[in-house]
């Protein structure tokens, strides 16, 4: 049986999406390879926003998201905003 999934890579103002059909059992790594979107700059994967690994098994209709590395440390960003509010 075949499994259809969507692989998505997003940037702030644009995204790429590729639908792939894979043989069961399909994994995140299989979907990324079949889509051609994977790259060395990927920080990880998610399936519908939930953290996943390359070995995570996929189901029909899943959306695999390619995660990018953080541009800034969230804790440091909050500290700077709080410091700016204090004056």
UniProtKB/TrEMBL annotation:
Residues 68-87 are annotated as: Disordered. Residues 77-87 have a biased composition (Basic residues). InterPro entries: Mopterin_synth/thiamin_S_b, RnfH, RnfH_sf. NCBIfam families: PRK01777.1. Belongs to the UPF0125 (RnfH) family. PANTHER family: UPF0125 PROTEIN RATB (PTHR37483:SF1). This is UPF0125 protein H0E84_14435.
């Amino acid at each position: 049986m075949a499994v259809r999934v969507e692989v998505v890579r997003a940037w702030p103002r644009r995204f790429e999406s590729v639908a792939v059909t894979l043989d069961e059992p399909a994994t995140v790594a299989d979907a990324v390879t079949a889509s051609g979107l994977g790259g060395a700059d990927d920080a990880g994967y998610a399936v519908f926003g939930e953290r996943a690994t390359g070995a995570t098994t996929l189901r029909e209709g899943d959306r695999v998201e390619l995660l990018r590395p953080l541009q800034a440390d969230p804790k440091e960003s909050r500290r700077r905003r709080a410091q700016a509010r204090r004056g």
